[in-house]
Amino acid sequence: MPFSKLRTEVEKIVQEHEAPVDLRLKEICELLKAEIPYYTWVGFYFKNGDKNELKLGPYAGEPTDHTIIPFGKGICGQVAVSNKNFVVPDVSAQDNYIACSIHVKAEIVVPLFKNGENIGQIDIDSNVPDPFTEEDERFLEFVNEKVAEIL
Ligand code: SME
């Protein structure tokens, strides 16, 4: 499914006001994983209360041991402090990386802002090397903006 159509689908899920927010986030993860062939694992992490750590939220894909990630650790932890998108074409070239599966080749993490504050992120793992383009970044920024509206 093209990104333009996926944007519409994401908006529809966000507007399912009768469904709990976590269920809607999970549906978004499942949609992206199912429709974008190189999205192997899709999940949200959020700041864990007032602690300087991330906690795993809804996701689609294999369960991960990394349900808590301290700020600064791994790609996710670095985005929690940089407030910037982090595109990793080749995870084996990263020193500060937390491996979730030996099959993962690439990763993209895009921060999620609510009222200008970095409160979490969307994290995508790919088993395909170097698959992400600026189109993915713009799309995932859009997803996070929509999600922020219901948080
Ligand atoms: N690879 C991430 C950890 C989270 S898993 O990909 C689900 C990282 O380096 O922060």
TrEMBL record:
Protein name from the UniProt record:
GAF domain-containing protein
The lineage's top-level taxon is: Bacteria
Q: Which SUPFAM superfamilies match?
A: GAF domain-like
Checking InterPro entries in the record gives: GAF, GAF-like_dom_sf
Q: Which ranges form a coiled coil?
A: none
Q: Which interval of the chain is the signal sequence?
A: none
The uppermost taxa in this organism's lineage are: Bacteria, Pseudomonadati, Bacteroidota, Flavobacteriia, Flavobacteriales
Write one Pfam family the protein is assigned to. Answer: GAF
All residue ranges annotated as the GAF domain in the record: 25-148
